[in-house]
Structures are given as structure tokens and as C-alpha cells.
Amino acid sequence: MLGGDGIGPEVVAEARKLIDILSADHGLAVTCEEGLVGGAAYDAEGTPLPTRTLEQARLADAILLGAVGGPAWEALPYAERPERGLLGIRAALDLYANLRPAMTYPELAAASSLKPQLVAGLDLMIVRELTGGIYFGEPRGIKTADNGERTGFNTLVYSEPEIERIARTAFEVAQVRGRRVCSVDKANVLESTELWREVVTEVGRDYPDCELSHLYVDNAAMQLVRQPRQFDVIVTTNMFGDILSDVAAMLTGSIGMLPSASLNSKGQGMYEPVHGSAPDIAGKGIANPLATVLSVAMMLRYSLGEAALADRVDRAVARVIADGLRTADIYQGEGRMVGTAEMGDAVIAAL
Ligand code: NAD
Asked: Residue of the nearest CA to atom 4 in ligand 1?
């Protein structure tokens, strides 16, 4: 458990309470260790990712991370910035599959930027390739010609094994959800995603219980804001996933409610709320811990093989929302406003 910075330790403390209760009363067999990452690690040890933290991460089945970053560390050189801690763990563990669910609880649908009737009951999962594609492809750079004219360039490259493994992740996720996968590419223009489409289609034959469809990314963007409930699982490249998952996040209306997971082929995963360290509200006890609590549910489901417990945690969150408990970020004038710890306690009570 890596609390990190800002509200990170506050929301992770609520997750810790939940895990302790799951262990004590609900048969979860898990051992927790805590470690330093991000700005907190830099302050204590002069690096955002101490060797000991990386070792702990490697040995763990799952990592729960709060958030990293904040104004105090913004002036540091790139290699010492808090985000390097997070990126370092991702790279070291080869966490290539980023799972970003977007769910809208009926009671919170009014917070969406779309009409409530379009998003109430939304439950989709974006599976984004995280370690390849144009963000990592070589060659890359900015070159200057003899006449002084500059050219910026990046390379969009995907190998067959890279596509195959992310496709398998997507189908496996679909198998425990609605059994529908929509692969998003730009195969009409980009050869690398022409291959993407071919390989995803081939992999799909191994999952006859799942339905596979394809969309070009421009159409997918349109469909996401037109009729988001048509989707179950969307699988896509690093850059398209980066953009589409933020669109999907906005549909739900609340960043404080969104969990995420990043997995490798061994089922090891890093679980974290989508939000950042929220320096503006850190230390006030008002941060919404539910994104982190829902990240614990994902951890139970995808790394710890505890789907039934995951369902219970998801239901407990739905229950506290239905009961009208609201942290400030999701308060819309109805229900009862509570702080971080009270929300965490309510989830445990609902469990
Ligand atoms: P942010 O997500 O931290 O905050 C955006 C807004 O949402 C703020 O007004 C904040 O108060 C609110 N918010 C976020 N989480 C909330 C929660 N759980 N409950 C209630 N309100 C919440 O994004 P930002 O302000 O752009 O970034 C702040 C810092 O976090 C920066 O240093 C940034 O680099 C870092 N960051 C880290 C991660 C990560 O660790 N994965 C992700 C994004 C940003």
C-alpha cells in the first residue's frame, strides 16, 4: 500500500480499514505492507521510487496506490518528480493493461455532463494498452534541418505479441462482465492499427462466448457521448485509450468515484483511483475515498481471485450512495454530507 502524496494517504487509510475488516471478518487472506512513493519518498529518501519500495512492489500480488505529486515537487528535475515513482513501478512490473471502468450510479447521474437518462446505469470498461504505441515508439524527437526548419516526429508501432496480450486481457475482462468487446482503431488510415484489427479478430476466435465489434476511433468518440450505454468493454491503443478514458470519466461526472487497474500477464496489478493528489483539499478530511475503495474491489477481482468479495464491496458502495451519503465532491444538495473517514466507515457498515 503506497499512500503517496496529498489526499493519497487519506484515501488509502480508508482502503486499509476496509481490507483489515475483510481479513478479520470475511475470510480474506492477505498481508499488507506499506511503503513510500512519490513526493513523500523524495522528501524522506531523495528519490520518488526507493529501491525498497520497488522490491515490495515486485514481491506483491497487488499494489494499492493513492496518488502522487503536488506543488512542492513541481520544480524538481524530471527524474526526481513524483510521477517517476508511478511510471517506474509500471515499467518494472510491465503493467501493460490499463483497466478504467466508467460507472454511473443512478443517484449521481445528474452530475454527468450528459443528460441523466443517457448515463444512468452506465457500466463500461476501457482496456487501454499502456506500455507501447506512439508514446513509446522509436524513433522520436525534434530534428532541425540545415535550413533551420524543425520537424517533430513520433512512431506508432505495435507488435503482434503486444496486440495479442492486450486483446486477451480485454476478452478475459469481458468474460466476467457483459461478454462484448469493441476494439477501437484507425485501421482505415494507420497500418499499425490495421494489424491491431487483424490480431484482435484472430484472438477473438479463442473467445467464442464473447461478441467482438470494431469501431474507428472518431466514431467511437461520437458513440461514447451519443449512447455510452451501448458499450461493455472497449479495447484500444495507448493514445486512443488515454483520450477515450477521460471522455468516459467525464460521463460519470465525478472523478472521486473512478477506480483503475494496471495489470501484467502474471495477474499482478497496481490499483489506484483515477484522481490525483488534490492538493487543494489535502489534510481537510473531505476527500472522497470511494474511488480507492472501488480500486480495492478491482484488486480483489483481478489480482486476488476474490470475485465474490469484490461484488460485496461494489454493492456496499452502491448502498451508501443509495442511502444518500455524499462527500463534498458528489454533493448536489440532497442526502447527507460526510467526510472521508465517515464515508469509509459507512462502506464497512454496509458490507
Ligand atoms: P486532481 O485529480 O488531484 O484534482 C482535480 C480536482 O478534483 C481538484 O479540485 C480536487 O480537489 C478534486 N478531487 C480529486 N480527487 C478527489 C477526491 N477523491 N475527492 C474529492 N475531490 C477530489 O488533479 P490535479 O489538480 O490536476 O492534480 C493535482 C496533483 O496530482 C498534481 O501534482 C498532479 O500531477 C497529480 N496527479 C497525480 C495522479 C496520480 O497519482 N495518478 C493523477 C493525476 C494528477
From this structure: 278
